[in-house]
Amino acid sequence: MKFFIVCPRGLEIPLAEELKEISERSEVKALGAWVIDPPPLNNTGGLGVAGPMSVALAINLHSRIASRCLLQMTHVAYRKEDDIYKAARSLSWEDWITPDQTMRVDLTAHRSPLTSLNFVTLRIKDAVCDRLREVKGARPNIDTELPDVRVQAHLTATHATVYLDTSGQSLFKRGWRDDKGAAPLKENLAAGILALTGWKPEQPLFDPMCGSGTFLIEAAYRGLGIPSGSIRAGLMNPQQDAAQSAQDHNQAVKSADKSEPSKFTRYRPTRVDLVGADQGFGFQRLKPFNTPDLKKQWDGLCIVAKKNIEQGLANANKLKMAACDINENMITIVKNNWKRAGLPAQSGVLSNVRQIDALVAKSPFAEPGVMLFNPPYGERLEIKGGRDGSERVKGRGARDALPKNNNSPEFMEFLNQFGKHLKDNFQGWQVDVLTADMGLPGQVRMKESKRTPLFNGPLECRLFRFDMKRPDASSSAS
Q1: Does residue 111 come out as left (phi exceeding 0), alpha (psi in the -120 to 50 range) or beta?
Q2: Element (H, E) at 196
Q3: Which ranges of 5-116 does DSSP label H, i.e. alpha helix?
Q4: In angstroms, how far is the first alpha carbon of the chain from the final one?
Q5: pLDDT of residue 25
Q6: What is the Cα 38 distance to its own chain's centre?
Q7: pLDDT tens-digit profile of 170-217?
Q8: Which residues pair with 353 in a beta bridge?
Q9: How far apart are CA 96 and CA 33, in angstroms?
Q10: Taking Cα atoms as reference points, which of 64, 65, 275 lies closest to residue 178?
Q11: Residue-wise pLDDT tens digits, 444-473
């Protein structure tokens, strides 16, 4: 079988490395060999894998960087819309789905000569429905919010590829995030950035502008060997500690973002939904994955993962992590997200998560490590402390796109001060910053040692690395 593994653009190389690691796990290797395409020269947003059906099981459970795992159904040349319809209708959809299930079709294209992509999407939907009506006497209904089955197609200038989505909800939805705070990083982008930094679990990790805690929780999962799909696989249960904890969290949510109402159906179909074991993964609603053989393979992967989770949680007190944010409400959200992720509150990490201005924040660890953060850019009124909003300051809470040349005196002064703070207090540290501000190195008055182009959705960003020099022994002696 052929698969296409979707990821945020710019993370193709770390994705390839991660897929190699997954394929070499003993329990995965026993199910069949994988052939992983080399990373593309351009940022294509994914790469191909050939292997047994168990590829989908392992990637959905273990991949921290993938957005989706797409199973290729056909790859054909086309000249007009009807060519795509015929190719899609010729597929044996009845072997994969039933007319009782709901369906959604999505289409992407690159240099396609066809004039209406919406019409092509409609024709693919017609092809699936017509085939099932012909063979089964009924057709599936369309559900754009909560479909049981997702069909994905991609058009190039000459070829059309049709896929079945084995992931369902995007894999960045781990199942622990109940509230996004202010436009958070997607979890798989955060995981990919962690891979790019080269951070090791035995090293200190510090996020001085932590927002809702995405870097912190992704690093904890990675450091403890907890699969990213654990909650959706039913291997971990996100928990809310007590009624008071829930009340505190809800109050923080209302203060941090009053604009987004809650939506409830079978689960919340929003960016911040809690996707759990009840929703699981897309492959669990496809016929071939419900055969005894593949169910047994899935159970085997989950048994090994469960043992790894237990071992990892037993070592949670070894994590060297700290974080802070100027917004007290975000600290409340971080701590609740940590608990919902199934991570132990008594690990010691939460005692290192505090409401502190980044300009005065210092590491609680004796040795240097990796500082990683996504600075809040733009300007807005932001709560600095207290939940009643009585104290407000300009500045560092918005996650809106920053113009490439932001000449705001307040923001320029903040970056200048923060750069000096890093030089004075984080000597020997590796500092990695994800930002849409291409001029940030000049604003912090430091020369980056590395810059990596990335995309946060459609927004082009850079991951800047700064290596903070240790003081000269000769200087300190004098």
Answers
A1: left
A2: helix 187-197
A3: 12-23, 26-29, 54-62, 81-89
A4: 67
A5: 98
A6: 22
A7: 999 999 987 655 557 899 999 999 999 999 999 999 999 999 999 999
A8: 323
A9: 23
A10: 275
A11: 999 999 999 999 888 899 999 999 998 764
